[in-house]
Amino acid sequence: MNFRTVTPEEMKKAAALEALKLVRDGMVLGIGTGSTVNFFIDALKDLIAQGVRIRGVSTSFESSERARAVGVNVEEDYTGPIDLDVDGADEMDASGNLVKGGGGALLREKIIAYNSKNVCIIADESKFKANGIGTFRIPVEVLPYLSQMTRNQVEKIGGICIFRDNGKYRTDNGNMVMDCDFGIIKNPAEMENKIKMVPGVMEVGLFCGLATLAFVAGQDGTRTINFKNFSP
Ligand code: 5RP
């Protein structure tokens, strides 16, 4: 017998195509950022060609451009509600706690997730961490002003923080990102709140209690994990 290995890219696409099945005519979508979401954005093209009308709010300049290119009406100043946010993750646990921001879009991603009726996470199986999140260093978006002080305060919580690209990296909002190692995080919600309280922290890449469901694609197909009820 010939068992072909499913590649990570095929898994990302499989998860993205499951999320596509949730899209309905007239919906306002939250459009995430990253290589997995790119498969979702590209697949919207066929739906739009079939006459499905889709408006969206986007989490990054890159995703806005990609979504516009396939015909999504991307709004810049939308007041809500957002029907369905589709986004990737760097890590996810069985309770739906997420690490996000590997692509630097965490602040806009959290605003959109927080304001969405439903948040659908799409990922390949490498992102699912049954033993807890925190192996991937937690991205923290920081105002450049007195950023070393902010770093010192976040490190007092118990982590080691490194400024991305030696401090040269800037988000779409003009801020810096620190990648912070706290080890496996026992209580992600508590950690999210503690880091968020430090002045100078614009956002933390821990997303707790926001995910509605996840599609996680692996070698044996794509499984659905429900964290909350889907709101129509
Ligand atoms: C960007 C993110 C992405 O969702 C996360 O980094 C996953 O990206 P990819 O799908 O490329 O693995 O949080 O800020």
Structure commentary:
There is one protein chain. 28% of the residues lie in helices and 25% in strands. It has 232 residues and is an alpha/beta fold. The model has no long low-confidence stretch (mean pLDDT 97). It folds into two domains: 135 residues, Rossmann fold, CATH 3.40.50; 66 residues, 2-Layer Sandwich (Alpha-Beta Plaits), CATH 3.30.70. A seven-stranded mixed sheet has the order 3-2-1-4-7-13-14, with helices on both faces. The protein has a four-stranded antiparallel sheet with strand order 9-10-8-11. It is built from six helices and 14 strands. Helix 1 crosses helix 2. It is globular. The structure holds ribulose-5-phosphate. The site of ribulose-5-phosphate (5RP) has 17 residues, from helix 2 and helix 4.
